[in-house]
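seq:
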Amino acid sequence: MIGGILLALGQGWGVAALLGGAGLVLWHARPVLLALVLLGGAAGWASAHAVLTRPNALTPWFGAQVTVQGEWDGQFLTLRDPPARVTLAPKPTQGPGQLRVSGRLLAPEGRRTPGGFDQAAWFRAQGGLLSVTPGGALVGARVREFQPQGGLRGWFRRGLTTGLTERQGALMQAIELGDRGDISREQFSEGEAVRDAFARAGLAHLMALSGQNVAILTGALILLLTRLGAAPAWRFGLPVLLLGPYLLLVQSSASITRAVLMGGAVLLALALGRGRPDPLGVVALAALACLLLYPLWLTDVGFQLSFLAVLALTQSERVAGRLPERWPRWLRLGLAATLLAETGTLPVIAGTFGQVPLVGLPANLLAGAIMALLVPLGFLAGLLGPLALPLNVVNGVLADALLLVARTFGQAPVLTWGQVGVGGLLAYGAAVLAGWLWLLGRVRAPAALGTWLACLLLTTLPGRLHPAREVVFLDVGQGDSTLIRLPHLTVLVDAGGSVGSDYDVGAHTVVPTLRALGVRKLDVLVATHADTDHIEGAASVLRQLPVGEVWIGQRKTDDPVLTAVLLAAQERRVPVREVRRGDQVTSNGATLTVLWPAGHAWSTEDNDNSVALRLESRGWRAAFLGDLADLTEERLGAGPLDLLKAAHHGSRHSTGAALLGQTSPADTVISVGRNTYGHPHQDVLTRLAQVHSRAWRTDQLGTIRWPVP
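struct:
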């Protein structure tokens, strides 16, 4: 089935999957099963094809200002007419319920930065044979009417939050319902988001409903029924009957659907007296059911993490058996399960999130003990609804304890990782094979350990043998952020920003891109001038990555955005340097020189005080001009250029004829996004064409990577 889905997606790996299935049939000398292999491939292809070719009912309204009404579940707004689902940006502060909202309807975007969010692919993965694929995003969303969610879900949500603080209630909704809308807005302190702390501590999975929730809830119910003396048919059959309503109550996802299917199969077998089913068979059954109905879940990170973790956990007993027998069994199994889950999901976590937590083992052991109490008590509070006030006194204490664990371990350093390529996957496969052979007793521990170390070393060699030499113009929408990568010198010029929005471009766009590119630290962070769209994201970059020093031009004391950046630098003990014309730094034959500001006088216009830079390497020259206006550009003396970073997003009053006459750039990059300012202006594009300079735009091409000689 996986092979058929991949073929429908146009992936050649699908042939390999189908041949693998056929090979297993021949290996077991049961050619009659070949028909099932072909049937599975056909079913996978047909299911995926049906979802991929379904017309989008929202297409005629793309680009239009619309007002729509539907059911908001915290993630999607489900419309009745036309039948469709959309996301809202910014997300409403109101909880789930009926919404009437207005905004501009836009088509989903693909991945525009390395390691960035591929909205279009994620939308496709949320559709299935029985559910509508999300069709668009409503941006600039303004809520006109709101009616809180009623029915069982409304009652349950009130029970989870009554008597609790906003942060406690947001955590309970994430843990019990999988609704992470409120917790995404919570912060421990300025720049310290709660969800980021959970991710750095290796606890992000706690806010995604999974097998842990199902196991704890069914385990508590089975324990209660056992104490009441219920027969096995009731002891295991009743939880099976309740799993369906539970799945309808919570937010549907790949991980919780997988857990319900697997849990239902195991409990049904026990209720019927058939014993425990084969673990791999149950995993395969759940995967078949999920992929038949939701074929594009195969591309969803949640699906991949869920099934990889469960497959790894099937070896818990083997690993626990290798640990000292004098240790308590619960401790050995806990250690084994945590290590296996982290190892099994390592390539997906490293490649998708650009970082690997280093404290996941102790953090999960402590958090697991808290969750064992919090999940069933929270579920009971939900069933009690507004009557749960006395119980939530206990739940509030447990929620605070879990938040404390996340905040404490979330302050630990993480291992930064870049994108995982074919070589990395091969090294990971070799390491897993060595570990598997060690578990089977086929190889000794020193040989397995040596293989692991060798694979780890091999993954670090490419970056050291061939260090990057490039300029990366990040697509941060209507803003600026440029990365200069040289051996022993990494410079980030600006970090974007989002005017009039609470979206943190630094945390959610710039930092993930840097991690995907394998950037572990910055030698210099340049804040060109006090404009939100250039430097607002710099504070988050400072808080999440090591930075050598910050360069600024004018030190304004009355600008809140620049003040926030300087405070973040002070918190991290990063020195701040006020650069002037002629300052420079060199690395491996390349020189980065400050062209502006002169520093003896300041303009009342922030744009005219921008830090401008020139990069020279082996006869190749590029300039980065911030938001300078044309009159200031003429005074730079930039000299002939191979590459020009156009000032002020292609504004009419920048990239003037005098500058172009002095520099004659062969290529010009314009960092620009959707805007109402008319950027880039047609006059600028005309001037570039007149000097035969090719224009490259981030709004059309996404992130642009330019090699440096």
